[in-house]
Amino acid sequence: MAEIFINQLKSGQEVSATFALRVKKLMPLRNGTGYYLAVVLGDRTGQLEGRIWESVFETYHGCKVGDVVKVQGQATEYNGKLQIQISAMSVYQVNEIDPKRFIPSSALLLETAREKLFSILESLQEVHLKSLVSLVLSDEDFMNAFITAPAAKRNHHATIGGLLEHSLGIVCAAEGMVQVYPNLDRDLLITGALLHDLGKVEEYRFRTGIDFTDEGRLLGHIVLGVRLLDHYIGQLPGFPEDLRLKLTHMIVSHHGQYEWQSPKRPKFIEAAVLHHLDMIDAAVDMFKSAAESRDDPEDHWSGWIKGLDRYVFCK
Amino acid sequence: MAEIFINQLKSGQEVSATFALRVKKLMPLRNGTGYYLAVVLGDRTGQLEGRIWESVFETYHGCKVGDVVKVQGQATEYNGKLQIQISAMSVYQVNEIDPKRFIPSSALLLETAREKLFSILESLQEVHLKSLVSLVLSDEDFMNAFITAPAAKRNHHATIGGLLEHSLGIVCAAEGMVQVYPNLDRDLLITGALLHDLGKVEEYRFRTGIDFTDEGRLLGHIVLGVRLLDHYIGQLPGFPEDLRLKLTHMIVSHHGQYEWQSPKRPKFIEAAVLHHLDMIDAAVDMFKSAAESRDDPEDHWSGWIKGLDRYVFCK
Amino acid sequence: MAEIFINQLKSGQEVSATFALRVKKLMPLRNGTGYYLAVVLGDRTGQLEGRIWESVFETYHGCKVGDVVKVQGQATEYNGKLQIQISAMSVYQVNEIDPKRFIPSSALLLETAREKLFSILESLQEVHLKSLVSLVLSDEDFMNAFITAPAAKRNHHATIGGLLEHSLGIVCAAEGMVQVYPNLDRDLLITGALLHDLGKVEEYRFRTGIDFTDEGRLLGHIVLGVRLLDHYIGQLPGFPEDLRLKLTHMIVSHHGQYEWQSPKRPKFIEAAVLHHLDMIDAAVDMFKSAAESRDDPEDHWSGWIKGLDRYVFCK
Amino acid sequence: MAEIFINQLKSGQEVSATFALRVKKLMPLRNGTGYYLAVVLGDRTGQLEGRIWESVFETYHGCKVGDVVKVQGQATEYNGKLQIQISAMSVYQVNEIDPKRFIPSSALLLETAREKLFSILESLQEVHLKSLVSLVLSDEDFMNAFITAPAAKRNHHATIGGLLEHSLGIVCAAEGMVQVYPNLDRDLLITGALLHDLGKVEEYRFRTGIDFTDEGRLLGHIVLGVRLLDHYIGQLPGFPEDLRLKLTHMIVSHHGQYEWQSPKRPKFIEAAVLHHLDMIDAAVDMFKSAAESRDDPEDHWSGWIKGLDRYVFCK
Amino acid sequence: MAEIFINQLKSGQEVSATFALRVKKLMPLRNGTGYYLAVVLGDRTGQLEGRIWESVFETYHGCKVGDVVKVQGQATEYNGKLQIQISAMSVYQVNEIDPKRFIPSSALLLETAREKLFSILESLQEVHLKSLVSLVLSDEDFMNAFITAPAAKRNHHATIGGLLEHSLGIVCAAEGMVQVYPNLDRDLLITGALLHDLGKVEEYRFRTGIDFTDEGRLLGHIVLGVRLLDHYIGQLPGFPEDLRLKLTHMIVSHHGQYEWQSPKRPKFIEAAVLHHLDMIDAAVDMFKSAAESRDDPEDHWSGWIKGLDRYVFCK
Amino acid sequence: MAEIFINQLKSGQEVSATFALRVKKLMPLRNGTGYYLAVVLGDRTGQLEGRIWESVFETYHGCKVGDVVKVQGQATEYNGKLQIQISAMSVYQVNEIDPKRFIPSSALLLETAREKLFSILESLQEVHLKSLVSLVLSDEDFMNAFITAPAAKRNHHATIGGLLEHSLGIVCAAEGMVQVYPNLDRDLLITGALLHDLGKVEEYRFRTGIDFTDEGRLLGHIVLGVRLLDHYIGQLPGFPEDLRLKLTHMIVSHHGQYEWQSPKRPKFIEAAVLHHLDMIDAAVDMFKSAAESRDDPEDHWSGWIKGLDRYVFCK
């Protein structure tokens, strides 16, 4: 049975659902005789304050931030905002967690994405690139990870499925580019666009939120991506060394500049175009989110957007 | 009658044609009894050494580098390379100069470009942007300049017609982008793409080569472009202030970063996309030129490309 | 009748005056039975906390931060600090607002400033520059704006009249420079100093505080200033093109470096000197403010001054 | 039979030896009747000019810069400098080339190096790191490459065997560090020091000079090194994941900063120490070379040293 | 009699001891009838909250942050954390203050340090450097300062004796380096290592915490160190000018780069090595502190470490 | 008897004078039978080519670049340019060299400068600063050096007396500033302006050209200047410590930014103003020299000016 989401709750409603515990804090009672427990609960639709007045210390010590908690209680309105009066809260069984309940998902429909992936595969003429993409698409474990991974911890496409949305966005933009610039090697650019961020499946982990893995922080998705590409190409005897070198370089250089953590800068045109399309696809997502983040939709300007290092004009 | 070009000359051929004087130098005769005059002549197809043995000093003082000179002589082969033995050389009448003889022209056909310009105009739905583009296209003086201007002194699109080729390239790329990212304001992006570099018609001057104007060096094409945009919008009563502000910002911010001489960074998505498409269009031209500039087409690498600050892989 | 200012208030005094509403916040009553409204009120002399115990929600929703509010109440001392117990607070009629009540004004006397402006005009020998300055000074609308505009949102000369004070400060410093360096073109430097920041009249708006306009954030005062200069010079037939180019360049380059948002760097000496005098005039104001901002006048050091990116020695 | 080296040649001596062709140039004869061929020949001890007066064009077109050429001729003194009058010069058989004749070799004796390598292996206590180093040392093909590879194209340790000298230098310095800082993980630091640059065996190629491989320029030795480490650890079942992660990070971060092409900065102390020891070992070599490069050993200063971006004090 | 330290306190224990007053704040009583005084007390072992319920205002005004206060009270446990209920608190007599009670001390034993200092002195062969070190070591006033000074306000070695620990750490590392790189001038490097930061004795002051002196902020320890070195060498007639110049340069350049406040970059190898050893010694201390600062020793990562500008991997 | 200068020579004139030897080069005779010696001679007015046909090798080995040479010969015109046919050239006696013959001198008259120095001294009200300046002015050895030293090796004021001209220029500009900004401490600013670069007397050496001393390159004029200031203030018992600290800081911070080799940035207003006046005075000199360096006085632009990193507009 589908659980209720935070943005569906109404004042007075009984609640029995799981949430991610985002914050917990012991607070002194106003009469000075003890404490209550103030929590912030979250799911993919937002956050909500909760109050626990009984078994305060047991509950406090029985869970930690990041846990999924099973909550019993009642939604009430307090000073114009919804709150849950919680009668019971405890850690939920781990093996049944679905991150999609807690982290926003990409708007991209999985079915649409799959169709796009296979149409990309079909469109490839270069036989080795086609084999490579085919091999990757048929690796079920990898694809399950690739389909759900986020493209970032925050900033852009920080959603379940965000990596796939981002990768396909760049593939589509690349398809536009090859129409305009016929000297681009279409299949190389498309394959590079699809695979440039594949290391991100190992850079992030997510459960009730998105975080870096140790590998992600110590090696980064560029090095992890080269490793994955090596893994796949290693299974394709006869894959041309030049093509492998070019694809690997496209991963290595796609951040475009040393200070953005690319150990090499793009040295042929498909690598250079990939870098800029990566920037555009991220920018489109960040400017859109910036506009959506305004408190008042009448404002001409967003607040300060850290990932863009600027205010965004939204008129 | 069409004059001969340098890349058409054959050994033994009589030459009577105009060239740009690129270099002139008095050289001592090997027998120590006087001087000869060594010159480098150029046209859009290349450069050629020339030798003058008579009236050396008069000829030397009668012309200066950058002049168009009328040359009489004979092509000869000397150590495997063509050279002109010049019997007479003098400055040519200025009022008949055609820069296309001396500076390479964009590969874009003017007819194709005109069609594209009018199809852009037709495609615009937003009435004020359509009026603006219509006004610009119908300004014959400006269009003559816009059609011939280069996009740079060197680096990318440093050709007659290069500015138009560059501007239309970005418009085409922008048309691809709006397919992929439907939240982009198509007409704003297309108009911005077409007009973003319009100040370049006043930034460069060209006759036998491309150089900066004083305005170009002191103000730059961003400020000159804002001035031109103001000039046109000033003729369109009722042009919405918001639209004018956005278009102006797109010119002001299209270099993307302060250190690249943009006084503002892009603050809405169409401005940000325009910046990256500008980078891509320039990169496509520069990587292509880099490959073409190799001495040996078998080399995997170009020489150092200053505009890209790197060697380019050409395999 | 002159209203009372915050720094004149005494404990026990009845207050009936307008203030700028800087902060508003609903706070739970200590007995847990409801809320009170805590506000911060401001005028040009400082800020003051206020408390509202009746009609809390109506008052809260009846005004927003940045409004001018009419306040009735009594000043009281609470823990050594003054506070207003507010009996009534409502938004004040907009069309009668005087920003000088809410924003500090420059110490420069308007009469002194006007005299200086006309003595500058008189001192100019170059006929076209004299005409230009004369035209600007006689534009009443512009002068009303120029006389009241701030030179910044914070950092330096963020006062009503700050722009004029800053501009005249640089003119005076420039007059000193031409004594020392006789090869400077006096009239060019003086005119450039007077007009270099004229775009700031359109970069900022102020009412109860100083903020950027949309134009200010999207175009900046350099581009806005060029536009205004064009507007004036356009009315002066026969204004020499070279002089216009030089003056325009002085506006364009006066921040001195690309990363400080100048699209060009100074390319002749008057432009270079103007840039440094601009830096000095701003520094004098910022170091002075830094010293004044110390809590304890015995301290050798100010706190961290963001605009200077350092601590300031005040001994 | 051992061939003669350039620094052993004496005037009047007959020469029959192989050299690297560094420069070739057709020069007009002084009497204007034809050309001679001027070449620069090189071996590991220096360079020498040569002159060819017969079969000039055949010889010119029969060889290219970078070739090994077999030279017959006689050393003569010309204006105080030695020169070879060449009677015959032709390209030498490729399959017998020994780069050590043409590129300087490290001063490190191979026997000493081998002993050091095995004493490092013996000194390791951590069983997996010991297995890894043992595996690498027993890979004959790799070791042959590792023993001969240079550490750079120029700047520091640009010699045959330079990579090994550099790697062992850092190991020795690391051994000193663990004496001083006992909280360092000795075996991790030593192993990291030995293997940090192993990708350089694929980054450079050398025959008569040192140059980048395509892999070197497109991927760089950091990415190539991670690949090689993966190759070796892949053969060691049970190698702890944490240890692999740490060693890999040490390769990835050893340049210390993004702008020096490290995609990650050191995130634990052994990685940080490795980075600084790498800097020291390179500096020792570069300062020494700077002093040796002075024309006059009495000069207090070297010329400008590009790799150090400074003049070096040599007193 | 030894006073008790914060980390020795137990709930219920009577306290009569001196502490550094780190924070003081008047807080409203929950019943709204007045105020209590909340303080944070510190010594070298940590910090502790305290509460004062009587003579609140007198106590508040009778002391200021940074003072040493004599505290009477009782340790109690409140919500799982220790707190002191303070019955009396007043400023302590200044002339008896021992900073070691309030600021952590280096782990280096003074006796060990002294032995090391004299073994350094003995080890020096170069007679003038030996005289110089001997002179410094025999300057009792300076040595008392050198032995107790911190090496920084925070970041690394911010302890009493931290400067000495840091200086000797670098000397020890330098002794390792001269084993590996025999072309280093041992005595110069060792003397430079010992004295490179001597200006820090005048850069910091410490009593209950570490702060900059005015000299420290206005001149910095590099300029102060040159001045001190001049002072000592001025007492050594016949000290060679070259040696003085080299030692002075080692102080002047030891931060390695202009942006790290070195007015010169290292221009000979001993200066370059000193710079890197300085970086290593600081890094060892900062990475160690980062690991110790984790809340949960099971965490793989420290929090953000400002001095290192990164998270630290602690697994 | 006054020697002739290069810019006074006429064709046909006999020459017997001393010059600085700037370049020497052995050149093959055109008939292939030997060598001639080509030299470039210089004095403060310019440079001239010379030719030596006899005793070529003896002359070549008998002098080195930088020497003053006694030249006998005859000025001749060759291809429109003057040249000296040299019959004898030998090294001149060192102890009689006057650098003013070889290096341009400042246009500032020494008498004017002395008057200005004494009027500065008289103008000082603050008794200790007056004593300091008086002490410096009365140090004959220092003043001889201060009066002749250049302010740079090239870029700005690279003349004999350039340091004094530069220092007095800033003092004059500072006098203008204190008129405009009355909160400036006049005497501090004036004294700081006069003495800020005093270390340059030890940074440069000059004889036939300007070069760095070893101290200059290893320590720089900031550190050398602090040392000199210490030397003078050390002779003034009772000189206030605060004043010494401020003056020293003004020397230490006058380059304004770390990357311009200031170990501290200006922390009070007089130091900040001094920095900007230093920039202005250097700029005035560099822009003027840029205009003078044009080949054609009709050109609107100078060539690339390295010290300004730009082209200069000269119209």
UniProtKB/TrEMBL annotation, chains A, B, C, D, E, F:
<dbReference type="InterPro" id="IPR006674">
    <property type="entry name" value="HD_domain"/>
</dbReference>
<dbReference type="GO" id="GO:0016787">
    <property type="term" value="F:hydrolase activity"/>
</dbReference>
<feature type="domain" description="HD">
    <location>
        <begin position="163"/>
        <end position="283"/>
    </location>
</feature>
<dbReference type="GO" id="GO:0031125">
    <property type="term" value="P:rRNA 3'-end processing"/>
</dbReference>
<dbReference type="InterPro" id="IPR050798">
    <property type="entry name" value="YhaM_exoribonuc/phosphodiest"/>
</dbReference>
<dbReference type="InterPro" id="IPR004365">
    <property type="entry name" value="NA-bd_OB_tRNA"/>
</dbReference>
<dbReference type="InterPro" id="IPR003607">
    <property type="entry name" value="HD/PDEase_dom"/>
</dbReference>
<dbReference type="GO" id="GO:0003676">
    <property type="term" value="F:nucleic acid binding"/>
</dbReference>
<protein>
    <submittedName>
        <fullName>HD domain-containing protein</fullName>
    </submittedName>
</protein>
<dbReference type="InterPro" id="IPR006675">
    <property type="entry name" value="HDIG_dom"/>
</dbReference>
<dbReference type="InterPro" id="IPR012340">
    <property type="entry name" value="NA-bd_OB-fold"/>
</dbReference>
<dbReference type="Pfam" id="PF01336">
    <property type="entry name" value="tRNA_anti-codon"/>
</dbReference>
<dbReference type="Pfam" id="PF01966">
    <property type="entry name" value="HD"/>
</dbReference>
<keyword id="KW-0378">Hydrolase</keyword>
